[in-house]
Amino acid sequence: MSTSAIVVVSPPLILEQLGFNLAAYGRVAGLTGEQVLIKKGEDLAYRAPGGNSLAALFRARAPHAQKITEAAIARGFTLGRRNGNHKDGITGVAAARAQSIMGGFKSILANVSLFEGRLQIRGVRVSTAGRRIAGGRRGTGGFAVPGSLATNAEREILFPGVYKDTDKRMNFRAVSTVFEINLRGAASGFMSAAWLMKRIRRLKDSRRIELVNPRSQVAPLLSRAALEGSGESGSVAVRLSSFVPGSLEVGNRRGIFAHALAALSADIGSYLARKESEALKATLRNGMEAGRTIAEAINV
User: For residue 214, what pLDDT is reported?
Assistant: First the structure.
């Protein structure tokens, strides 16, 4: 589901200054108000120098998956609730994945390891022949070993040669927490990836390359920002359209929109100052040339 809303920027002076600079930019560059809004709207979203575009700022502020995992370990794997959580901070997706490997048991034997900043959980699985197996890519092959077997001796009787010292008893809460942490880590780059404008594709059997939009199931672009208003009068607003939930809230809370708009306004201001300096130098140069012409005429 897409959200489309006008961005409220604080302090409002940022938008007022941007509007003033946009109007001046249009006069200097010889562009219509609509052309100014389109050109600078693209700069705001993707092309602003110095890493100050919305795309660059969202990417820079996206937490790395490893940091999310390390933070979860440091706080003892407690999870805060989020909108849409199943219960106790666990989403329905994480709960479903936990249920898929638990085989209907209240607890299972499993082991958890840390690999490249992500938690890996592997439930103990046995085949119909009673041998320990990997369980396939999703870890659901064969049968789960119930964690209700309290002692190693009991496990060894029922599943000889299957049990390892690294296997731990884990209930539904523990298993689903691991999946939830991994899902949050995987989602950390989703909001920033939504701003990818172009990617390079080399055509098959050809030396030609082209720029194409990254694809998704809902739209060619998951997020875009545009300037609205009047480029001539300097009345301007920013509209954010996004299929990524929370983009507007995150952008406002972390000051991303205010930062990007202030940087865009400053960049336009630098352009205007440079053009004013060039015009002044040209005027002085023309004046000196006119003076030399007059002097030469007088001395003839």
Answer: 47
Q: Where are the domains of the chain?
A: 3-62+195-220+232-295, 66-188
What integer is the mean pLDDT of 105-118? 81
Dist CA 140 CA 99 (whole Å): 10
Instruction: Give yes or no for a cis peptide into 160 (omega within 30° of 0).
Output: no
Mapping DSSP onto H, E and C, the string for the chain reads: CCEEEECCCCCCHHHHHHHHHHHHHHHHHCCCHHHHHHHHHHHHHHHCHHHCCHHHHHHHHCCCHHHHHHHHHHCCCCCCCCCCEEECCEEHHHHHHHHHHHCCCCEEEEEEEEECCEEEEEECEECCCCCEECCCCCCCCCEECECCCCCHHHHHHHCCCCCCCCCEEEEHHHHHHHHHHHHHHHHCCHHHHCCCCCEEEECCCCCCEEEECCCCCCCCCCEEEEEEEECCCCEEEEEEEECCCCHHHHHHHCCHHHHHHHHHHHHHHHHHHHHHHHHHHHHHHHHHHHHHHHHHHHHC
Choose from 45-54, 69-78, 80-89, 241-250 the range with maximum mean pLDDT.
Answer: 45-54
**Residue-level pLDDT at 112:** 83
Give tens-digit pLDDT for 127-152: 777 677 766 566 667 777 777 765 66
Q: What is the mean pLDDT of residues 286-296?
A: 63
Is the pTM higher than 0.85? The answer reads no
